[in-house]
Amino acid sequence: MRIRSRSTQNPVIPTASMADIAFLLIIFFMVTISFQVDKTQVVLPKTTVRSEVPKKSAYISITEQGQIRVSSGEEISVPVPGPEDVLSFATGVVAQDPEKPFVLKADRQVPYRYVDKVIDALEQSKARVIYLLSDQKTVNSKTELEQSTGGSPQQ
Amino acid sequence: MKFERETVSDEIPTSSMADIAFLLIIYFMVTTTFAATRGLDFALPKNEQNPPVVEKEDSVLIEIRPSGQLIVDRKPMQLSQVLDYIKPKLERNPMKPVIIKPDPDAPYGDMVDVFDELRQADKKIGIEIKNISIPTEREIEKFWY
C-alpha cells in the first residue's frame, strides 16, 4: 500500500472577506448616522411620557444661565443674543417649512421666564409642534422627586 | 551578462483594504451620537386671532411657585395628589381645561414634571386630559387682565 504524500498547508488566515464585512459595517453606520446639530451641555428634565422627535427638527437650546442657541436642523447651532431673536429665527424657519417641528432643549434648572419667552416667540411665528426634550424618568428619579418637598427638587 | 526577469504579481493588493475599512468604521462609530431624541410633544394653538376663550373659573389652575410648590386652585398640593383632585372634575366635564401657570422664577423642570403628570392621566386615573394649556406671560396679560 502506498502512503499518500502529506499535503502541505500554508499557515495563512483567510482575510479576503474581512474588507467585505468591514464595508458592510460602514454602510450600516453611514445609514444610521445623524449628526447632532446642537452640542450644548444641559441637564434635561426627566419625564415618563416621551415621543420620538422627528429627524431634521429645528433646535432651540437654553442653558442654565439663559444662553440661547438655535439651529434650523440643517447646520450646527449658533448662539443668539436674546429671546427676541428667536422670533425672527423661528419666523424664517416656519416660512420655509410650515410643518417644521421645533425641539426645545432646556436645562431643568433654567428659570421659566426664558422658556416662556421662547414658547411665546414660537407661538407668534405660527410654529405647529414643540417637543420638550427630556430624559427617561426611572423609578429612582421618581422617588427622589417625591422625597423632596413640593414634589419637585429645591433650587 | 545575464538578465533576470522580474515577475510581476497579477493580483490586486487587497491586504490593506480591511485596514482602510476599519479606520472608516472607527470614524463613524466615534462621530455617531445616540443622542436623547425623545421628548414631550405639544401642539401650539393654530389661530392667534381666535384663541379658545378659557374662563379662569371654569378651569383647573395649577400654579408653580419658585420653590417648586404647587398651588392648585389656590390650595397647596403635592404633585402626586393633583390627578386625584382633577379626576371628579373631569368626570363631570371631560373637556375641562387644565392650565399650568409657572412663576417666571420657577425652574423649567418643575413645569415639565407637572405637564408629564397631566399627560399620564390616561394611565393613572383612566381619563385623558384633553385640554392642557400653558399660557405664556403675553397671553395672560392680553386675555386675562
Task: Name the beta content range of chain B.
Answer: 15-25%
Estimate the mean pLDDT confidence of chain B: 81
What structural class do helix, strand and pairing data of chain A support? Answer: alpha/beta
> What is the first-to-last residue Cα distance of chain B?
110 Å
The helix/strand class of chain B is alpha/beta
Provide the helix percentage of chain B: 25-40%
Radius of gyration of chain A: 26 Å
Q: Largest inter-chain interface?
A: A-B, 66 and 57 residues
Which sheet architecture does the biggest sheet of chain A show? Answer: 5 strands, mixed
Gross morphology of chain B is: rod-shaped
H/E series of chain A, N to C? HEEEEEHEHEEH
Strand content of chain A: 15-25%
Oligomer: heterodimer
Helix content of chain A: 25-40%
If you had to describe this structure to a student in words, what would you say it looks like?
The longest helix of chain A has 15 residues, at 18-32. Helix content of chain A is 33%, strand content 18%. In chain A, helix 2 (83-96) runs parallel beside helix 3 (112-124). The model of chain A is unreliable at 146-155 (pLDDT under 50). Chain A is α/β, with parallel strands linked by helices and 155 residues long. Chain A contains 4 helices and 8 strands. In chain B, helix 2 (79-92) packs across helix 3 (108-119). Chain B has helices at residues 17-31, 79-92, 108-119, 121-124, 137-143; strands at residues 38-43, 60-64, 70-72, 75-77, 98-102, 132-133. Chain B has a 5-stranded mixed beta sheet with strand order 4-3-2-5-6, covered by helices on one side. In chain B, 36% of the residues lie in helices and 17% in strands. Chain B is of the alpha/beta class. The mean pLDDT of chain B is 81. Chain B is rod-shaped. Chain B has 5 helices and 6 strands; from the N terminus they run H-E-E-E-E-H-E-H-H-E-H. The termini of chain B are far apart. Chains A and B meet through helix 1, strand 2, strand 6, helix 3 and strand 7 of A and helix 1, strand 1, helix 3 and helix 5 of B. Strand 7 of chain A pairs antiparallel with strand 1 (38-43) of chain B.
